[in-house]
Amino acid sequence: MSGLRIPGGLVGVFALLAAIGMTPAVLPAAQAQQESAILFRNVRIFDGKNSALSAPSNVLVRNHRIEKISAAAITVDAQVIEGGERVLMPGLIDAHWHAMLVRPTPATAIAGDVGYNNLLAAAEATDTLMRGFTTVRDMGGPTFGLKRAIDEDLVVGPRIYPSGAIITITSGHGDFRQLSDLPRTIGGMLSRMEKIGGSMIADSPDEVRVRAREQLMQGASQVKLTAGGGVASPFSPLDVATFTEPELRAAVEAATNWGTYVATHAYTPVAIQRSIAAGARCIEHAHLMDDTTARLMAEKGIWLSTQPFLDLTAANALGPAEQDKMRQVVAGTDRVYALAKKYGIKTAFGTDVLFSKALADRQGAMLVNLTRWYTPAEALIMATSTNAELMSLSGLRNPYPGKLGVVEEGALADLLLVDGNPIDNIKLVEDPARNFMVIMKGGKVYKNLLVSETRR
C-alpha cells in the first residue's frame, strides 16, 4: 500500500476499503441511518401543549426527530412499537436541577474525591432519564464533563443545559468556606469549591465579568448568579441582598454578548427587583416575593423558575439553621404560585434536589405536587412545552437546537409511552418504573417494556 493515495469523501472511503480488501455492504454510519426509523403504532398523543389527547395515531421517528404523525397507517421499513392506544407524550423537563449535587452529602460534594463524585453523578443521570426526565437545566455545578459524556453516549442520561459554576459573593449563597478560611487575599488562592467548578466568588463587576465569561467559555447555556441568600449555605441569611446592580449587570452584559441570558437565585423582593433592573431574564425560586414584585415580573416578561416545596424533606441533610431557612421557603410556596397565577407570570417547573437520592427518586411526585395549584394538564404542559420554551432562551448557546417538549413533526424525538392517561391520572408519573413503558431520547430507545417487531 506504499503508493496508495487516500481519496476524499464517501466514495474515497469505499475505494480505500476496497484497496485493503474490506468491502462492507454498508458503512456503519449509513447502517445506523437505515436502522434509526421507529414507528409508534396506535397511540393517543398528549402533544405537550393541549389538554385533549389525539385520536389513535401513528408516529414515525427517524434520525433523532419526529418525521411524521398520521391517523392513517404509515407503511415504512422500521422497528414497530405497538402502542395499544397508550399515551405518547414528550419527555419531561426539570428546569432547576443540580446533576453533580443530587447524591453526595454536602461534605462529600465539597471535599470528597472528584472521581467518585463524577461516577455518582453518572449513576444519578441514568436514573434521572429512567424517571422520564429527558432534559434538565442544571443550575449550578461542574457538569460540563458529565454533559459531554452523555452527549457522546458514554453515559446514559438526560440532555443537560449547563450553567457551570454558581457565581456568588463573599458570604453569599454558594460560598461554602468556613470562617477559618478567612481572610482571603484579593486575587489569592481559590477555595475547594472554586477549584472543582461548583461555585466562584466575585466581589466586583470586573470579577463577575471574568467568572461569567469563564463559564461561557466552557459551554454554559446560561449564567447563574445568587442575588440573595440561600438555604444550604452556612453564612447566607435569606433576607440578605448580595450582588450590587452594577455587579449583576456585568454578568448580564457578558451573557448578552454571547447571545444568552442570566438567571438569578433570589427569594426576596429586593433581590428579585435588583436582578430585573440589571437585566436578568429568569428568577429562580422567589418564594418570599410580594405582590408588587410579582406584578413587575409580569410586566417585564421575566421568567419564574420555581419549585413546589411543601415540606422539610429537602432539608433533611442540612443543619438546624439551614432547616429553619427551609421552613421560611416552604411557608412561601403557596404564595409564590398564587402570585404567579394572579399575574400570569411565565412559570417553569423544577425540583432543586440536593444531597438526597431518596428525594430525587420522588422527582415525578414533585411534579404531581403542582396539582395543588394547577390542573394535571396544566402541570404536564409546564413540565414539557413551557419548560422547553425556557430552554430556548439560550439562543445560539442552546446545546440542542431543535424543538423540545412537544410531540409534533420536526420536533426532537424525546418521548414517553405511558401505560395509562396521565391527564386523567397524573399520579402515573410517580411510578415511572411501572408506568413508563418506553423512554426515548433523541430517537434512541433507552427503555422498552413492550414487544417490538420489525415491519418491512
The stretches of 5 or more residues where confidence is low (pLDDT under 50) are 1-34
Count of β-strands? 19
Q: What name is given to the CATH topology of the largest domain?
A: TIM Barrel
Reported for the largest beta sheet, the result is: 9 strands, mixed
Provide the β-strand percentage band: 15-25%
Which key terms come to mind for this protein?
456 residues; alpha/beta; Urease, subunit C, domain 1; TIM Barrel; 2 domains; 9-stranded mixed β-sheet; 16 helices
SSE layout:
Blueprint: H1 9-19, H2 28-35, E1 38-45, E2 57-62, E3 65-70, E4 78-82, E5 87-90, E6 92-97, H3 106-111, H4 114-130, E7 133-138, H5 144-151, E8 159-162, E9 166-168, H6 192-195, E10 199-201, H7 205-218, E11 223-226, H8 245-257, E12 262-266, H9 269-278, E13 282-285, H10 291-300, E14 303-306, H11 320-331, H12 333-343, E15 347-349, H13 357-360, H14 363-369, H15 376-391, E16 415-418, H16 432-435, E17 436-441, E18 444-448, E19 452-455
Parallel strand pairs: 1-4, 1-5, 6-7, 7-8, 9-10, 11-12, 12-13, 13-14, 14-15
Antiparallel strand pairs: 1-2, 2-3, 4-19, 5-16, 16-17, 17-18
Helix pairs in contact: 7-8, 8-9, 9-10, 10-12
